[in-house]
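ok so I'm stuck.
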Amino acid sequence: MANKSKKDSVVSNRADLAVHVEAFLKAGGKVQQIPSGVSGQTSTSGPRQIVLSHKTSS
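replied:
not stuck anymore, here's the structure
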């Protein structure tokens, strides 16, 4: 694949995706359209920072 051009790679990826989508649909899978602005994030509350360590006082 090192000799393939970027365009050839894109065409190959699109063809692979088309094959996978076709197989998914033939197996009974359904494609669901999600409206613009809808997020998969389930909760927006809670801490936003990650604490890597807590210093304890002795």
